[in-house]
């Protein structure tokens, strides 16, 4: 049976819609290019300017601590912004113990408690030096039932100020065992080489305890990504400094 001369075709040939499709694609490309230019050359630079103005620069800060006899110590890998009272309160809330000062009594106690496998949550840590002085504060979290293994971090008050509050820069490491120093032969804690994991642990515990209002990362803080500390233990890092901003107290 012949088709009626007035019957409409089943579909419109694709060539009929081709010009409009080209115009539509061209419009999308133009809009995409405009969005890219706005984001890349106006919005992101303005965000970075605001960020750089708000947060302090760590360019002039040392990268490594030193031992009392001048050996390279632990690498700096974490920082916190807050007053002294806010720092102490935040660490306590996150279940970090403030380390006892070094002395005959504390030295004997850590030695005995290590041998008899007895807990010592506030066990002292050896002093490391930054800005020509030992750490202002040292904190730890014990692992197990004696002082052999522990998370610990030392903090120094830096010269940087962030929104009228001091910045505390620190070195966080994980003690794996007690042994003899590879450089001096003294009895000491040996540390895990992955200092980035301990950096993460410090900020994770503070965030979990709801003590931080913000965190950010200083990329490329370290250009030397591996080394050895004063005890001869190796360390390695991705080079970043992680910074936490402690919530302000009313």
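-> sequence recovered:
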């Amino acid at each position: 049976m012949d088709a009626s001369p007035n019957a409409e075709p089943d579909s419109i040939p694709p060539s009929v819609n081709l010009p409009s499709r080209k115009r539509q694609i061209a419009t999308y490309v133009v809009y995409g290019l405009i969005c890219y230019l706005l984001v890349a050359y106006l919005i992101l630079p303005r965000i970075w300017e605001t960020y750089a103005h708000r947060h302090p620069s760590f360019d002039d800060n040392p990268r490594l601590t030193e031992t009392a006899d001048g050996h390279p110590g632990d690498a700096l890998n974490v920082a916190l912004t807050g007053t002294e009272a806010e720092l102490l309160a935040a660490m306590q809330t996150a279940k970090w113990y403030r380390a006892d000062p070094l002395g005959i009594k504390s030295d004997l106690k850590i030695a005995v408690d290590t041998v008899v496998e007895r807990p010592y949550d506030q066990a002292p840590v050896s002093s490391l030096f930054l800005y020509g002085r030992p750490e202002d504060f040292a904190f730890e979290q014990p692992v197990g039932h004696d002082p052999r293994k522990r998370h610990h971090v030392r903090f120094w008050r830096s010269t940087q100020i962030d929104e009228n509050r001091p910045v505390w820069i620190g070195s966080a490491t994980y003690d794996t065992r007690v042994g003899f120093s590879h450089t001096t032969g003294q009895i000491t804690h040996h540390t895990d080489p992955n200092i980035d994991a301990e950096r993460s642990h410090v900020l994770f515990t503070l965030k979990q305890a709801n003590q931080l209002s913000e965190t950010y990362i200083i990329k490329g803080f370290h250009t030397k990504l591996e080394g050895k500390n004063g005890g001869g233990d190796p360390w390695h890092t991705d080079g970043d400094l992680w910074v936490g901003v402690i919530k302000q107290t009313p």
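Residues 84 and 173 are 22 Å apart (CA to CA).
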